[in-house]
Amino acid sequence: MMILSGDPPRSRVLTLLLVVIILALAATPFLFPGAKALNVAAKICVFAALVASYDLLLGYTGSVSFAHTMFYGIGSYAIAIALYGMGPNWAAVATGIVTGLPLAALLALAIGLFSLRVAAIFFAMITLAVASAFQVLASQLSWLTGGEDGRSFQLPELLRPGTVLISKNLFGFEINGRILTFYLVFAISGLMILALLRVVNSPFGRVLQAIRENRFRAEALGFRTVFHLTYANCLAALVAASAGILNALWLRYAGPDTSLSFSIMLDILLMVVIGGMGTIYGAIIGATIFILAQNYLQSLMGVASKAADEAGLPLLPGLLHPDRWLLWLGLLFIASVYFFPTGVVGRLRHGGGKSEGASH
Amino acid sequence: MTDLAATDPLPKPKRDLAPILLPVALALLMIPLIGSTSSWLTLTVASLAMGMMIFIMASGLTLVFGLMDVLNFGHGAFIAVGAYVATLVLAPFAASIQADSLWTNLAVLAPAALLSMAVSGALGLVVERVLILPVYGQHLKQILMTTGGLIVAEQTLYALWGPQIIPMPLPASLRGSFIIGDVAIAKYRVLAMLIGLGVFIAIQLVLNRTKLGLLIRAGVESREMVEALGYRIRRLFLGVFMTGSALAGLGGVMWALYREQVHASMSDDLTVLIFIVVIIGGLGSIGGCFIGAILVAMVANYGGFLVPKLALVSNILLMVAILMWRPRGLYAVTSR
């Protein structure tokens, strides 16, 4: 229990689900051949960590931030620009990390000190404004960020797909640089999620929950709520930036669509809500369900849209078009906020019937 | 302070003039910086017109927050819906739009704007009943629900009208400028200013001179008290929400004509802009919203002229500066 910080999943089904997901992710390179499966698995790892860090904010402090993709993007761009400018070597990776992480933390500190002092609702609006300004900035400073095209780069020798570490005739599987990168992403994401679990179960995490439940009372008890909230904001930003670094390393690319766009922010929100706010475990479940659906249901929509088109139905082809994927996500989002405010994890823990913790 | 004798009139609330002087001072400060008086005048008129349009869109948001304590993250959707609905009227009557007669043009424009307002208002009714009613008093869920609503509305617009940009040409008689001396003032900007001022005056009159306005202002101060006096405040909420949505629709039509194009993504960009305006003005304050809109437009216009590079972040800088001065916006509404 030490490794889970004394906060086990508290539901047999949930434990089983988590074990299956983690084992499946760990074994993806061997179980599911092909680049798509590995891409999906890596994306699940990165997003599980990213969503867990967002859960620290939304689920544990109750503050809605719309700037989480900004920190994610800062991490992505920092590593991409460093590797693009300095060439594919480890010094560039280190440079990206030591510039990206402090930058994200500082920005989070500034936003936190500035907007967490006043009503929580300001925080949501101000993060939205700052994030959109950052997005415009990133696409305008094309000499640095590559504008709308983003930056593609090469990884250091060790992590390239061409590098064969263990040849095929030893185990029957080839372990190459790509698979090593996958395990790097898997391990670091896992460590970050465990660290977040540690944070939310520490006395500090208790204070965050107290602030979420009743900020005034927490303040009256003598906690400096602004300090705690800002600290949580910085921690979440650091994890988000790290997830951004992992994502860029995996994709060998950083651009506005993969790391900064508002639709990623919506994806994160959706994953947190589907998985279950304020549980951390919900992040793993939410990310898995969402990304599997995104990758495999979208092609199903394409088929359905075509079928509706051929059947000559009005309107349906447009509504079912794969590009309208977000429409259905939005409906799902509203429905899950309304009907399942505790998400999958909350449902599994409380057996469905009760709606405990439905309002804060 | 000494005791008040019974015959003394009630002490008048102090008028807070500093925020009103702010845009005036900003405009005057810009005269030497810009240099030529004629470009200064053009820029000032442009900012006033843009500010009025932003005000029309933002006023609903701030009123809804002030009265109902509901922050509608989907407010931008009403703007986009308004603009799209207007194309339904304007596209079939393209010929009368291109006719060079002010009255023919207005005869098409006015019904288009009214239809947009009606549709946005009706949509407001649906949104209030379906999305907001279940989550009154819960900020977190309100933000999540209305964000979801924004996505659904935007995607539905894409599904119905397609993802391409729809052109929306200005009517012939509103194109071009009035030339006074060496100052050029675009005709459409004058119209936008007139409509914006009209809306502002109408809102102020309703709020300050009618019984309805009295109830709304009382509701902002203390919801329970108004309810205790026997007024159905939920009806009042609904009415304000629908009015706010309809105004957003009107703003959407005006903005689309100003940019001469319609696209569903306009709701995203404008949402950020009106949030900044509403924060600057003080959540819930109509006067603050009016001044905030003008300030944002001035910074955008003057800033774009003087230091174009800065225009990207100028709104954020303005917001930071104002909140440093007054952490709750220009006019803080008392109860929140």
From TrEMBL, chain A:
Subcellular location, record wording: Cell membrane
Pfam families: BPD_transp_2
Keyword Transmembrane belongs to the record: yes
Membrane topology reported for the UniProt record: Multi-pass membrane protein
TM segment ranges: 12-32, 38-57, 64-84, 90-111, 118-138, 180-200, 221-248, 268-293, 325-345
Alphabetical keyword list: Cell membrane, Membrane, Transmembrane, Transmembrane helix
The protein's name: Branched-chain amino acid ABC transporter permease
Organism: Bradyrhizobium agreste
TrEMBL record, chain B:
CDD domains: TM_PBP1_LivH_like (cd06582)
InterPro entries assigned: ABC_transp_permease, BCAA_transport_permease
Chief location category: membrane
Membrane topology (UniProt): Multi-pass membrane protein
Entry's transmembrane regions: 17-34, 40-65, 77-97, 109-131, 143-166, 186-207, 236-258, 270-299, 306-325
Location(s) in or outside the cell: Cell membrane
Entry superkingdom: Bacteria
Record key words, sorted: Amino-acid transport, Cell membrane, Membrane, Transmembrane, Transmembrane helix, Transport
Family affiliation: Belongs to the binding-protein-dependent transport system permease family. LivHM subfamily.
Name by which UniProt lists this protein: Branched-chain amino acid ABC transporter permease
Lineage: Bacteria, Pseudomonadati, Pseudomonadota, Alphaproteobacteria, Hyphomicrobiales
